[in-house]
Amino acid sequence: MTRRLVGAAALIAVLTLGACGTTYVDSDITVPDTSPDATTTTLTPVDHDAPLDQLLLEIESLMSDLDERIIDERGQFATFDRIEELWTLAEKDIRSNNPDDVYNFDQAIELARSGVERRRPADASKGYKILTDVIDAYLDRV
Questions:
Q1: Can you tell me the distance from the alpha carbon of 16 to that of 58, in angstroms, rounded to the nearest whole number?
Q2: 3-state secondary structure 94-125
Q3: Quick one: pLDDT at residue 41?
Q4: Is the CB of residue 74 less than 8 Å from the CB of residue 52?
Q5: Which of 27, 69, 114, 137 has the smallest CB count inside 10 Å?
Q6: pLDDT in tens, the chain (142 residues)
Q7: Is the Cβ–Cβ distance between 79 and 136 less than 8 Å?
Q8: At how many degrees (to 10) do helices 76-97 and 102-117 cross?
Q9: Separation between Cα atoms, residue 128 and residue 62, nearest integer Å
């Protein structure tokens, strides 16, 4: 019986000590500077008098690489904030002239939102594909 206890204790000791390891810090990895003095890129303010087609094309441009921004974790929130700001202006115009078209645009914007908030690049990509089709169809009719 004692032989079994000694064997079990030895096995537990080996497993416990084997789990310990050395931690290495890779000094080659760079961390972005988040200090208050860090340089940030700011977008130009949205032109509230911009024509609808210009607003829609800027939304399309911003959504074109949103999925990659989500994957790389680089500016996806600022990009989506800009998309929402542009969409707020564009939606007013679309709603007043063609209210039935708002749903299709909303569907694409909601997928982009889901992609950013839930870190789901596939949602953002799907939203972009829907948006390009909706914009093309809308601008062809108007």
A1: 57
A2: HHHHCHHHHHHHHHHHHHHHHHHHCCCHHHHH
A3: 53
A4: no
A5: 27
A6: 677 777 766 767 666 665 555 555 555 655 555 555 444 556 688 888 899 999 999 999 999 999 999 999 999 999 999 999 999 999 999 999 999 999 999 999 999 999 999 999 999 999 999 999 999 999 998 7
A7: no
A8: 170
A9: 9
R_g over Cα of the chain: 26
For the beta carbon of residue 62, count every other beta carbon within 10 angstroms.
Answer: 19
Task: Record the pTM.
Answer: 0.69
The CATH number of 47-142 is 1.20.120
Write down the pLDDT at residue 30.
58
Contact 100, 134 (CB under 8 A): no
Q: Which two tokens stand for residue 108?
A: 């694409």
CA-CA-CA-CA dihedral for 61, 97, 140, 124, to nearest 10:
30
- 127: burial class by Cβ within 10 Å (0-12, 13-18, 19+)? buried
Provide the sign of the torsion angle of the four alpha carbons 24, 28, 29, 33, taken in this order: positive
